[in-house]
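Recap for those who missed Tuesday's class. We walked through two folding examples back to back. For each one, the amino acid string is listed first and its predicted structure tokens come directly after. Nothing is annotated here on purpose, so try labeling regions yourself before you check the end of the notes.
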Amino acid sequence: MSKLSLCFVTREYPPETGYGGIGTYYQAVARTLARRGHTVVVLSEALDAESYAVQDGVHVYRVRPRYSVSHVPFIWRLQAVWRGYRLAVALLLRRVIAQHAVQLVESPELHAETLLYSLLPMRLPLVVRLHTGTQLGIKYNSQPLTARIRLNICLENALLNRAKAVSAPSHAVAEQSRRCGLHIRHYQVIPNGVDCQTFVPPERESDELSLLFCGRLEHWKGADILCTA
């Protein structure tokens, strides 16, 4: 099998920004691909200073927003529509692509991180993976449709319209995203993988079941449904 050079753009990437499922997914995929000899680059957000490190064979770049207004008196309110993170991603991506001879870029639909990059005249094929974006979040958490959320939804739809391909962990996620208003024309189901070296089922000594719930305690995560079941 020929070796690939891939770049994942995700604000969530452990340990610095290991917020939840998106970061867990990309860390597992990146480590596995690197172990198989592929070149894997990750662009993620830095909480403090920008940095570069090789972690488990993965090239990890931490980037800070450019021209952020978060520290400017009064004007900081504009950060609801401008953080400068997408610009920082677009600028760093050009350098990283050249340095690592990247062939493909992938990012989640949530927050439309690669939108500005997708507007560049010279760009690589961009894959957008569905991880349940803003539209699904507000529906299943019964959140109000604020101006900032409306903007996020518009940006995520714009990114999906510019993607070369869209992948989803299941048909259910893709179809629910469509019903909620995301612009998904075609998609390919690629199930989330499991690291079988880390997750090994123990031998059962009785018929009693033990259940583990992984996720934030939010309505849409379904912990109440698990308890009822």
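Example two. Treat it independently of the first, because the proteins are unrelated.
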Amino acid sequence: MLNWELAQFDSAVDDVFGFRAVQIGLPEVDFLRQNRIRYRFTLALEPGAALAADPLQLPLASQSVDLVALPHVLEGHHNPHDVLREVERVLMPEGQVVISGFNTTSLWRVRQAFTFRRNGAPWDAKFIGLLRLREWLRVLGFELNGGKFGCYAPPFTQKVWLERFAFMDKAGARWWPITGGVYVVRAVKRVPGMRIVTPAWRQERARRRALAPVSQRSHKNHHD
């Protein structure tokens, strides 16, 4: 699951540019590793974060960040909507947020229903459905511009059973695309009067690679 999520984050953050990027939560894993913004840092209450803070009260100036990564932060917080509100506050206009979460329409949710919360993550988290998340984002002025479901096999703990059901991961995207155990989505902060139309991240990357660099000469005017 972690390998799949990292691949989606790699793809989602690769073409986001700016001056500052922050990963909130899970500081032990670098979800911004493929981003090229120079100033990147982690923020969390867990040990290992560059900045210790509650996601509900980000010690960051308003409109000061270009990219925010939220790997499974919302479902583990008691007030996920207000966490998103804080993210909206610190993001620059047209800034991007990448969010991962556990899908409520999946075998993972079925497993959670029959698992004691004391068994720890992810079963003690409050799964947030994608439709609900999309509505929260819409209310805050965000617009989805990319995303994917993954991890279709049942969440077995034994390797032998994971191998037997590996075919579900291969067929899931084609036959039951919205039932993946995990989703990763990207959204852009829209501000009235500053709307910039940009394609999905994969299309944008392909467009940039197709463009050849054009050299320009500068001419100086000399006056007698």
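Answers for example two:
Strands lie at 20-24, 39-44, 51-52, 65-71, 91-102, 142-150, 182-189.
The longest strand covers residues 91-102.
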